[in-house]
Amino acid sequence: MDVILIKDMKNLGEAGAIVSVNRGYARNYLIPKGFAREATKSNIKIKEWEKQQLSLRKNKEIREAKNVAHTLKKLSITLRCEVGESEKLYGSVQAGDIVEALANEGITLTKKQILLEEPIKTLGIYNIPIAIHPEVESKVKIWVVKK
């Protein structure tokens, strides 16, 4: 019996794949548990339509991420921080500070998207990488200056 996998199955394949299995395995386990559905003509058409919609949605997300990346490349953010005698910061600049500064510029990101290897502890100019989308990365220029 042919079935369309709804979820990834370790020994059968990835979601969306059409696989042949024993009729009893399909009727007693895969279909009732929601792991697969029978591969009828209508279900195959539905699978193709869902695949097409997913592709369109993914392309739209990538386009929007590229627009944000283009905006970030042009952007330069200044963070004013308190410093001590040797030009070292009291505390540090972390991903949350960068997210907050970007929010003030109208760009909404999460801390996880800021790829800051370690907190910034000195004054200077930094190019911080940002993962906007799994397939799109950009950098933003951060100026850390004294208050």
Automatic annotation (TrEMBL):
InterPro entries named in the record: Ribosomal_bL9, Ribosomal_bL9/RNase_H1_N, Ribosomal_bL9_bac/chp, Ribosomal_bL9_C, Ribosomal_bL9_C_sf, Ribosomal_bL9_N, Ribosomal_bL9_N_sf
One Pfam assignment: Ribosomal_L9_C
Highest rank taxon of the organism: Bacteria
Keywords: Ribonucleoprotein, Ribosomal protein, RNA-binding, rRNA-binding
GO cellular component: ribosome
Ribosomal protein L9 domain segment(s): 13-40
Residues of the signal peptide: none
PROSITE patterns registered for this protein in UniProt: RIBOSOMAL_L9
Family statement drawn from the similarity comment of this UniProt entry: Belongs to the bacterial ribosomal protein bL9 family.
Its job: Binds to the 23S rRNA.
NCBIfam families xrefs: L9
Name of the protein: Large ribosomal subunit protein bL9
Gene this protein is translated from: rplI
